[in-house]
Amino acid sequence: MKKITLRIFLLAGVIALSACTNVVTPSGLSSIPPGIFYTGMKFPSHVSYTVPESSQYEIVQHKVQGTSSQSSILLFATYGDGSLQAAKAEALKKIPGADDIINLNADTEAFSIFLFYINCKTIITGDAIKYTSNGKSEPSATVKQ
Fold first, then answer.
1. How distant is the alpha carbon of residue 49 from its chain centre?
2. DSSP string over the chain
3. Cα–Cα distance between 105 and 59 in angstroms, integer?
4. Is the whole model's pTM more than 0.70, yes or no?
């Protein structure tokens, strides 16, 4: 029985230290090696987003925040949308009438408990804007009927 237990812990240690258990950040910009028993980290992702100079817009609200996350349980099931686009969409839901977010900054938080649970969260902040033309709002999309 002791040999079986030792082999299980040895196998778990090899898996934990191998590259296949790295947590890829939702922005896909870097990889976080999880701690063997616990990970709790927050770090910036280097993302910049600007609108074309020809665009006219007004700032609807400063310092809008949105989050998205993805999780893995026992390295067998992974779920969630941790992309920057999902975080941006979540932030835009909070501000009625906003079309986009500029001055975008993204942070990533990683949390894990051994190999049982891994969570990677993207947190974006920026300024919500509404596109304008001669003081009138432009629709963000047109629908043909």
1. 15
2. -HHHHHHHHHHHHHHHHSGGG-EE-TTSS-EEPPPSSEEEEEEEE-------TT--EEEEEEEEEEEEEEEEETTTEEEEE--HHHHHHHHHHHSTT--EEEEEEEEEEEEEETTTEEEEEEEEEEEEEEEEETTEEPPSS----
3. 16
4. no
Token pair, residue 35, equals 């701690």
- Residue boundaries of the structural domains of the chain: 2-137
pLDDT by 10s per residue, the chain, length 145: 778 887 777 766 656 554 444 544 444 444 555 666 777 877 777 666 666 666 788 888 888 999 999 998 887 888 999 888 999 999 999 988 888 888 888 888 888 887 788 888 999 999 898 888 744 444 343 333 3
